[in-house]
Amino acid sequence: MLLEIVSPEGHLFKGEVASVTVPGVNGEFQMLNHHANIVSILAAGDIKIEVSDFKSNNSFGGKFVKSDKDQKFLLSVNSGTLEMKDNKVIILVD
């Protein structure tokens, strides 16, 4: 599935991912390929991206941390909004 993460500073990430886990307001949840359409508000926490070839926008690459535990890339956010439709996830964060 395609994932885009956008902040007021610019595009943080855009690429194909195997899964994305987000901090929903009622708890963490994960989306896999061909997940049902969803719109959600995000709480403070980490967005976890499972991707085989991680390439972030060079100027924002320092915002992501690689997890040693599960080989995912983490991005800490204060809040945000998520939409998944037609196998594309767009996350707006601040």
Describe this entry's structure for a reader.
The protein is mainly β and about 90 residues long. Helix content is about 0%, strand content about 60%. The protein contains no helices and ten strands. The protein has strands at about 1-5, 10-15, 20-25, 25-30, 40, 45-50, 65, 75, 80-85, 90-94. The strands form two sheets. The protein has a five-stranded mixed β-sheet, with no helix packed on it. It has a five-stranded antiparallel β-sheet with strand order 4-3-6-8-7, with no helix packed on it. The two termini are about 25 Å apart. The model has no long low-confidence stretch (mean pLDDT about 90).
How helix-rich are the residues, as a percent range? under 10%
SS class? mainly beta
Question: What is the radius of gyration computed over CA atoms, rounded to a whole number of angstroms?
Answer: 12 Å
**Percentage of β-strand residues:** over 45%
Major β-sheet profile: 5 strands, mixed
How many beta-strand runs?
10
What overall form do the CA principal axes indicate?
A: globular
**What is the average per-residue confidence, as pLDDT, rounded to a whole number?**
91
The largest beta-sheet arranges its strands as 2-1-10-9-5
Distance between the termini: 23 Å
* Uncertain segments: none
N-to-C series of helices and strands: EEEEEEEEEE
Count of helices? 0
